[in-house]
TrEMBL record:
Listed transmembrane segments: 7-30, 42-65, 77-104, 134-152, 164-186, 192-213
Keywords: Membrane, Transmembrane, Transmembrane helix
Domain of life: Bacteria
Keyword Calcium in annotation: no
Organism: Hufsiella ginkgonis
Keyword Transmembrane helix: yes
Name of this chain's protein: DUF4386 family protein
Length: 214
């Protein structure tokens, strides 16, 4: 791999991480049917930003994989797992940010009986979204753990970054299977904050490698 491209890969990770942070900052909390109607535009904006971030982030982590894969197979499996997580994120963002607003706006003037049926369908959408979030969090935890192994084994990036990734993954995994409800909005925001922090650091160190050889 041409090492000068590390700068662009690292920058892509940083950009994708910031886009995810913006998404969570704009993401409105759930609520009543009327509240969702009022916030439908903001819901769409937040999730469109999330969708944009996915290929940007995937491109960046492809570069991290290229840096590490020559030394360990952990990185290659991490990247494949990460792509599965990004697919789950795409489904979740599409369902919540595109399908939901378009669907509920069709019933803005519906009678109470129709709205009751709509709410049942929205409950299904919420359950589907939680399932996607579960896959997303689990996939990122596995990928971050494996990349952390590769970082510690190779020393291509600071080893403390690998140890930090282990710690974040362990906390997220425990939370995922506990009563802390990480798949709900507050818990998910905390997870994204931790993941974004690790990603920003990884992106910065990767871009520094690129800067040194530019």
């Amino acid at each position: 791999m041409n090492k000068t491209t590390n700068f662009y890969y690292g920058t892509a990770i940083i950009a994708g991480s910031f886009l995810m942070i913006i998404t969570m900052a704009l993401h409105p909390a759930g609520g009543t049917f009327e509240h969702l109607l009022r916030m439908s535009r903001m819901i769409s904006i937040a999730h469109v930003i999330a969708i944009i971030s996915l290929p940007v982030t995937a491109f960046g982590f492809y570069g991290l994989n290229e840096l590490l894969k020559k030394h360990t197979l952990f990185s290659q499996f991490a990247f494949i797992t990460f792509l599965f997580a990004m697919i789950a994120a795409l489904f979740a963002a599409s369902a919540n940010g595109l399908v939901l607003p378009m669907f509920i706006n069709n019933y803005s003037d519906a009678d109470p009986e129709t709205i009751k049926i709509v709410k049942l369908i929205l409950n299904y959408n919420t359950t589907f979204n939680h399932a996607c979030d579960f896959i997303l969090i689990a996939g990122i935890c596995v990928a971050m753990s494996l990349w952390s192994v590769a970082i510690v084994k190779t020393g291509a990036l600071p080893k403390w970054l690998g140890n930090f990734g282990f710690l974040l993954s362990a906390i997220a995994c425990v939370s995922l299977f506990s009563v802390t409800a990480i798949i709900h909005l507050t818990g998910f925001r905390l997870f994204v904050a931790g993941y974004a922090c690790w990603s920003l650091l990884a992106g910065r160190y990767l871009s520094v490698i690129g800067e040194l050889v530019r």
